[in-house]
Amino acid sequence: MKINVMDKLLSANDAWAEENRLLLRKHGITMLNIIGSPGAGKTTLLEQTIALLGKTIKMAVIEGDIATTKDAARIEKMGVAAYQINTGNACHLDAHLVNTALKELINDVNPELIFVENIGNLVCPAEFDIGEDGKIAVLSVTEGDDKVEKYPLLFSEAEILVITKLKLIEHTNFNLAIALAAFKQLNKKGEVITVDSCSGEGFASWIDFVQDCVLVHKIAECFK
Ligand SMILES: Nc1nc2c(ncn2[C@@H]2O[C@H](COP(=O)(O)OP(=O)(O)OP(=O)(O)O)[C@@H](O)[C@H]2O)c(=O)[nH]1
Ligand SMILES: [Mg+2]
């Protein structure tokens, strides 16, 4: 009998993802999985989100990186607890790694909302369910408007696409209409929000989205 190693890996991961979902439901926590290329602006989006929502929602962040604790240090500087996972060579976070972080954060912080900043990568993180309530795709205008079509799995699964670095768009050939059309083609229900995390432009819609997901506390309804 031929055993597909990738299938085995994914099914072991799925069992841990289910465990994570049970933990989140038991403690009434919303968990959002932020996925995008290296440098797309994931941590900056989180910093601005903490600045705007940190006093109203009890948050924690799980930071995934190949190496260094730089992103966790940025989050902690904003006054929010961060659990850094260094994967070495692995290009994604898996549900077992996230389970360890979740248990520690529940014990130490008891948050209402956990953001997971996944490893900077448009491919592998989308393949691994970590038990999140929703995937947030982050794409910056400096990456090119073709990336939605070229890396379809993430964009087809995301609850929301956050397009960052809006203020830089005039210096690029990024065509917003092309990216939006490609996203809508892949994802009928997903929302798109354009922001500039350095200036805070466009954040009202993003903050509304996050607040709705947390305050409603009915995840199933939130992500229908
Ligand atoms: N102008 C502008 N710059 C941004 C924006 N978001 C991020 N940047 C800049 O882009 C660079 C990378 O941002 P990060 O937030 O570190 O990117 P990241 O996705 O977390 O990167 P990795 O964790 O390494 O994958 C930094 O120099 C940020 O200041 C934005 O919306 N507008
Ligand atoms: Mg980062």
Ligand names = guanosine-5'-triphosphate, magnesium ion
Overall mean pLDDT stands at 94
- Order the strands across the largest sheet as they lie in space: 3-2-4-1-5-6-7
* Outline type: globular
Give the helix/strand class: alpha/beta
CATH fold node name:
Rossmann fold
Low-confidence stretches: none
Please give the count of helices: 10
Report the end-to-end length measured between terminal Cα atoms.
40 Å
Cα-based radius of gyration, to the nearest Å:
17 Å
Q: What's the domain count? A: 1
The helix fraction, in percent, is: 40-55%
What percent strand?
15-25%
Which CATH top level class fits?
Alpha Beta
Structural overview:
By secondary structure, the protein is of the alpha/beta class. The protein has a single domain, classed as 3-Layer(aba) Sandwich (Rossmann fold). The chain is 45% helix and 18% strand. The protein contains ten helices and seven strands. Strand 6, helix 8 and strand 7 form a beta-alpha-beta unit. The longest helix is centred in the N-terminal third of the chain and has 23 residues.
